[in-house]
Amino acid sequence: MPRYRDLFRTPEFTPLFLTGSAQIAAQTVAGLGLATLVFRATGSPLLSALALFGPSLAQLIGATTLLSAADRLPPRAALAGIALFFALGTAVLAVPGLPTWAVFAILLAEGLAASLGGGVRHGLLNEILPREDYLLGRSVMNMASGIWQIVGFATGGVLVTLLSPRGTVLVGAGLYLAAALLSRLGLGERSPRAAGRASVAETWRTNRRLLSSPARRRCYLALWVPNGLVVGCESLFVPYAPERAGLLFACGALGMLAGDVAVGRFVPARLRGRIRFPLQALLAAPFLLFALDPGLPVVLALVTVSAVGFGASLLHQERLMALVPAELSGHALGLHSSGMLALQGLSAALAGTLAQFTSPRTGMVLLALASLTVTLALARADRRADGPALPTEAPSSASRPSVRTGRRRTA
User: Fold this and answer.
1) Which is deepest, 1, 29, 82, 300, by most CB within 10 Å?
2) What's the rounded Cα separation, in Å, for the pair 185 and 25?
3) Mean per-residue pLDDT for 78-104?
């Protein structure tokens, strides 16, 4: 069984790991500061939720227009440029007196850039690591995400109190700048994974190709919908408990960290297929108990336990990679990332709307019920499929050596 230390001995894994960590820290710190700023200015649960998760809505646009570039751009230049764009955009969000419409216009642009960045980053990870190490590598990345969300939200909560929401957003901009420097100085120069020109038409063609397989469609739906609805529940933490939102987000990140460690390191291969959907059902079930209006200690426990279910995403990603040609790995993972984040943004909008007309607690319960229903329906469809679904397209022989051996390709 591969070990964590083996991953960090792989060339370029460490700088990619550090770059992703800096970006997660920036996103959580700046997001909490901006959501608090918008909520204080407008008093709207909907706008507060959209400030935190709204950029994810733009991922839907990016997934249908920009994703063909994920495998056709030099990874180092693309990652550094996108992080720099986020640093500048986030700094502008801290400008005093910025109109609300301008805030969301900037968030829309950042979401479009993020849709491309996810494909580039995840595709590069698939290229750096041997295919058999991908699950462990994603587990480590997700663990880092959980840790830095804990640190980011906890730090963001302190900064909002000690500095201001606006100062907290500026700290996030500085962290994005650090991510840009790490990408530029730490990653090696690589050729694009695919030839040809990126275009909207090519994005649509590849999306249709990836979604042509029923097995891949089920993987994508499992990665997008149940998780997105639960993130909609989390998007209501600020209006649900304005003074405790950072603590709730930190507990969620802690649970996600525990789930990723358990799945990535300790679940044997023979059990992975069996527990994908039961583990995913754990995401929604604890939020149903919010209907009982529990006290804060119980709420913190429920949020932590729920987030353990995010570990199921690793199992669905592993399944997806077994069904995708290697030369499309960046596009396929970008489609997963963009679709997932787009559903999170849509769910945040839906959650904010429900909370606006009912209450944050009621919105959480309704979204959790919808998430659990979708998970059970997908599990039933997976069981009814005629045997294990096989890839409809084999990975091309030209791209297989660099993916399996992690061999570096130079320009």
Assistant:
1) 29
2) 19
3) 91
- At 302, the amino acid letter reads L
CA dihedral 21, 25, 28, 30 (to 10 degrees): -130
CB atoms under 10 Å from CB of 266, counted, come to 9
Write the CA distances from 329 to 122, 158, 319, 385, integer angstroms: 8, 39, 13, 24
Other residues' Cβ atoms within 10 Å of the Cβ of residue 133: 19
Could you give the CA distance from residue 134 to residue 315 in angstroms, rounded to a whole number?
Answer: 11
Rounded CA separation 237/243 (Å)? 10
- Of 341, 233, 230, which is closest to residue 283 (Cα–Cα)? 230
pLDDT tens-digit series, residues 159-211: 888 888 889 999 999 999 999 999 999 888 887 776 767 677 788 888 888 88
Predicted TM-score (pTM) of the model is 0.66
Residue in 231, 284, 238 with CA at minimum distance from that of residue 57:
231
- Give the span between the Cα atoms of 35 and 48, in whole angstroms: 5
SS (H, E, C) 152-209: HHHHHHHHHHHCCHHHHHHHHHHHHHHHHHHHHHHCCCCCCCCCCCCCHHHHHHHHHH
Q: Nearest Cα to 280, choosing from 342, 229, 244, 345?
A: 229
Cβ pair 79, 71 in contact under 8 A: no
How many Cα atoms are found within 13 Å in the side-chain-facing hemisphere of 220?
Answer: 24
**CB atoms inside a 10 Å sphere around CB 101:** 8
Q: What is the model's pLDDT at position 229? A: 94
Cβ 49 vs Cβ 351: under 8 Å: yes
CA distances from residue 90 to 6, 52, 151, 162, 259 in whole angstroms, order as listed? 35, 13, 19, 20, 31
Mean pLDDT of 44-55: 74
At 54, the amino acid letter reads G
Q: Which of 39, 32, 27, 34 is nearest to 355 (CA)?
A: 39
